Amino acid sequence: MLHLRLRIVAAASLRGRFAAALVVALCLVTSPAAASGDTSAPQNAHFGFAAGGDLHNLAPADLARYLDGVRDAHAGWVRIDLNWNVIQYRGPDSYNWAPFDRVVRGVTARGMRVLAGILYTPPWARPADTSSRVPPTQLGDYAAFVKSAVQRYEPMGVRAYEIWNEPNIAAFWSPGPEPERYAQLLKLAYAAVKSVARSATVVSGGLSPHGSYGQVDERGMNPLTFLEKMYGAGAARSFDALGWHPFNFPYGLSLARWSAWSQMSSTSPSARSILRAHGDGAKRVWATEFGFPTGSTSRDVSEAKQAQLLRKALEALRRRAWAGPAFVYSYRDSGTDDENVEQNFGVVRYDYSVKPAYMAFRAAAAVSR
User: Fold this and answer.
1) In 73-165, which ranges are continuous DSSP H helix?
2) What's the pLDDT tens digit per position in 293-342?
3) Is the separation of the CB atoms in 112 and 75 below 8 Å?
4) What is the DSSP letter of 10?
5) What is the pTM (predicted TM-score) of this model?
6) Cβ neighbours of residue 54 under 8 Å, at least 6 residues apart?
7) I need a labelling partner for 128 at 20 to 30 A (CA). Which of 189, 247, 254, 278 fits?
8) Is residue 253 classed exposed, middle or buried when 0-12, 13-18 and 19+ CB atoms within 10 A define those classes?
């Protein structure tokens, strides 16, 4: 998935790359499970992977290989896209559920849970000559699809739904964020989910990093600012957990006013302080997407650094009572171009050979459940 990140300039170290290469050389190329040893430990209910948008396009054998590796890392969750644009592309009375059924059944059959992100608009529901990132003309069309999706997947074991993706940036809510309109979408979707599955968890759309508190420009709106405006538009009773994307690569977990990681709880205001101010202090923050890319640009980190940062992030989130499940983006690199940041977030490479981060995730997941 595309991530428009901020203030990212540091280069990955050659020394880190050499160390990572030595570690990876000890691992079997073809099987992360074989590389990581015993696979008998249960799945970790706190940690998972954000799969990105193409999981439903994998051939059956490739999907099985992907999900086996995720399971063998002891992940308890997989965040998938239920892509409205794909499922109802041909019209409001047409449904193409089959590719997504296969993914959901594959995840649950391996003892893992699904976080289903319901997102993107089919052509018939948006203005002509616009992209699927444009919200629907009639918000009720989205709510109707949400209800249909929950009716289908709740019996298959899906108990958590995320409403849209990164609605605070133009890349995913085009042409630009509208917190008030998103709040209306969230209200309708919440009611639709609960009308089918009262006990399901509704997660607000994970908010993207975008500068310091108060920053608004043509590319997006700071997530704290967006959250405050959501509350101002009456969203308080329309989500059970707050979705957040605490990317801060390549810097890691250091405190900074503009860091989405810091903005969860350490800045003033923070996501936690805003929740408390509106009587929602009991709601958890779900880090539904975060990670560290390992390509060759100044925005990337070395493979050894990726493993280190991932371990520290998971340990930190495990210790925080307000943190919900954490979803690492991503399990597998989406390509082989090391100059394309978006292709190198995986903890395994495109050919499924493991990076040290796979071992770091697996060790963290095995320690605490």
Assistant:
1) 84-87, 98-109, 139-153
2) 999 999 999 999 999 999 999 999 999 999 999 999 999 999 999 999 99
3) yes
4) P
5) 0.90
6) 334
7) 189
8) middle
